[in-house]
């Protein structure tokens, strides 16, 4: 009898079998880029093709100027292998181009690519906040059906225009049983944001402060992928943890197991912009430093906090405050510089600090994390070795190893980079 079911006995239609075969024969079909690929010259627009990797941009890339005086674009590509689980591919290169001029504005290959990519569910070493990050394995091998994150941090020289649309080119080889089969594919033409970052006043009182876990390296803020309500977010992409620094570079004195030993503890938290309070949480006890607390319920992650709406779709989060210190209630109008509460160690926090960021929603989970800048500050040094906020109190001494920074001096309308020491 003729089999009328269009699907075969394995449950896959002839069309799907053909697609799988086409993707497997990637060397013949995925050759998106012609001569001049990756050289800064024009790349022909590809026609329809089967591609071994799919990709999605997780946020609208938003340009901002950092203390190096350069324009940065920091965002992510979430890639998925379309190959069978029995087949893997080697990703050799990622080029980001200006879609209009086809000039390459950023590239990753070799060790740099290995260090900037990891499978979902397998974070990059060092992103846990405890372990220094060793080099990633080279080459970058993606197994069939596996999902990876590629953490992109593009840096444009001073005066270089920001492309209106970015285009992403991936190249490598499908590792077929018959041997490697090269592929090149073009994915994700992505518009960059035209909305300028919020330019803010400081969220703390004048003094010397350590800018920890800020963009754009391998920190648990920048590379914190969170699965929430059925999709992935990077909710802390541009968050900064602020620590008060003393005249001798110290962040704590005395017994690091005492909250009062930390210079940040009970320092005032002030509004970085005027707006309306939309969320307040209080009553969560401070953790005893410097031990890592148990992972709190999702609603208590940022501890005692205040969220202020300062523009449509823009909210400022002030987190980890000490219980009983909050000075505002939901619905209050606040002015820039107004005291909101005092720094504590509540929520997912090990030593007292202020977690500060811009959000796109009133709640922390889920949210997106856009960049921001501060109106004026002075860089007075940097901390070159990685000292994580999670084990700051486990250091032999509370004194930061501060060295001169190439960006020492006054700054305006810029974002502080990771591990800078600055004065507000």
- What's the end-to-end separation, in Å? 82 Å
Output the number of helix runs. Answer: 3
Order of helices and strands: HHEEEEEHEEEEEEEEEEEEEEEEEEEEE
Give the tally of β-strands: 26
Q: What about the largest sheet?
A: 12 strands, mixed
The geometry reads as: globular
Structural class based on helices, strands and sheet pairing: mainly beta
Look at the structure and give the mean pLDDT.
88
- Ranges where pLDDT stays below 50 over 5 or more residues in a row are 1-42, 125-132
- What is the helical fraction, as a range of percent? under 10%
Could you explain the architecture of this structure?
There is one protein chain. With 424 residues, the chain is mainly beta. 5% of the residues lie in helices and 37% in strands. The chain contains 3 helices and 26 strands. The strands form 5 sheets. Strands 11, 12, 15, 17, 18, 19, 20, 22, 23, 24, 25 and 26 form a 12-stranded mixed sheet that branches. It is globular and about 65 Å long. Residues 1-42 and 125-132 have low confidence and may be disordered.
